[in-house]
Amino acid sequence: MKWLFAEEDDAAATPLSSPRKDIGVPAYILSRVSQRFGYRTAAEPVEMHLIQSIQQAVLQTVKRNGGRAFNMAEVLEIKELCDRLLPSDCTIVVVVASPIFVMPPGTTIPLHNHPQMTVISRVLYGSMQVNAFDLVPPDEDEAFWVRKEERIRKAEIHHNRFPKFRPRHLKVAIQRSTDVVHGPATTELLPDRCNIHEFIAVGDVGCAIFDILTPGYNPLYACLVAANTRSDDLMYRAGRDCTYYRSLLQVEGGTEEEPWYVLEPSNLPPSSFISVDLPYRGPELMPAHVAAPDDEHSATSSE
């Protein structure tokens, strides 16, 4: 996903005050706008919708910090605005400036990561369970598998839940949270905190979630800027592709509050993961003509 922007649509706007009952989908609906999110250059309007104020604050922060993941101080600034966002501030089933996920009851957005990204999520209505993880540092992951190797070979773990060879593709992760979040509420994840998460819609009405992602997913950007960017900056730009995970089982390690689990990564989502895009019909957004830091044309030498 990238920072997304609104398509113009002349259709009548429908207030988003409750989940739509007439949409039937096998999994969940992913509604998003479709143009690139960028910097505002025109004069600000005298009055702005709250959703436009959120967009402007995000753009200003991205411009100020060079397109890197937001730090906690920057997150709090955006959260203060998001805390005021209600369904009545939006229309139909989408929200400007980033995706909104509309999830029928019992559906799941599968476990996935946000490499070197910050995400602010506003639960507009309903409730969701958030299962959040972080991968352990590489040296701790290696030490875990060294300790396990002999026990794996001896089949000490039963029911064939581990292969009998060293499973180098598997990852050890700390479970950070299994909280249920009741809307309206705003949450966040950081590059090093709750970065891998899963959403499960609970309750009778499902939920809708407005997301702000910064910087957006971009798996190919590193090859475009490597010749012109300092190596210590590449960690903020390279490899921002979405990886999905499957939680296999709990293992020894961690604490009672933050146990360790083994996760199996995949480049593809589960086959049950289905999304439907719907057009944006909310408040008009400012056009984006200036390239954001993730654009090829904005790559310049930092020296």
Automatic annotation (TrEMBL):
CDD domains: cupin_ADO. One of its GO terms (molecular function) is metal ion binding. It comes from the Eukaryota. Keywords: Iron, Metal-binding, Oxidoreductase. The keyword Protease does not apply. PANTHER family: 2-AMINOETHANETHIOL DIOXYGENASE (PTHR22966:SF61). This is Cysteine dioxygenase. It comes from Aphanomyces astaci. The lineage of its organism: Eukaryota, Sar, Stramenopiles, Oomycota, Saprolegniomycetes.
